[in-house]
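Working notes for the structural subgroup meeting. M.R. asked for a predicted model of this chain before we commit to crystallization trials. I am recording the input and output together here so anyone reviewing the notebook later can reproduce the run.

Input as submitted:
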Amino acid sequence: GLASRHAILDAACKLATTHGLEGLSIGELAEHIGMSKSGLYAHFKSKEELQLATIEAAIAIFNADVLEPAQKSRPGLARVNALVEAFLGHLLRRVFPAGCFFATVAAQLAARPGRPRDKIVGVQQSWAGEFAKALEQAREAGEIAASVDRAQLVFEIMAMLFLVNFEWIVTQEPGVLDKARAGVKRLLDEASAGRSKARRERPLQTH
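Returned structure, recorded in token form:
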């Protein structure tokens, strides 16, 4: 039933972060959870169907653990910081045994065209879109200068999160999470400084 499917997909998500999504087969998953292959085939008719269902399950976990809590914060820079903190907390709590599910499988699927890759690309674009939206809100609120290249800022924040995910997997040292915090703070401070600079350089209005 639904309960057993949920348990299967939870195990599949965890297995995919250590073995990769391509390494996730019905036979291996059946052995991992102590279930017959025929029992798994009742839920998933093919390897691709299992992969897609696993990605959807990982999306639901990520949304509940990272996106939804962060979206409760104030729009703008507070939202950017909340997204970063929620992601770092996701790593620290070891929700998946090998860091971020999507960073792990994205590296493996990048050169493999198909529905699983398309789904992962969509997730990454959506994640970047959350930062882009929060930075646009920050611009509208006057928290950062209109001249700030927000697309570049999103790219740099995302790059830091990908790197911290890798370093966290390798070292399991909380200090690497602090490096990411410091890096994002520097980027946002520079963007905020641009706002202050623009205000200082604004010509005086004469009547």
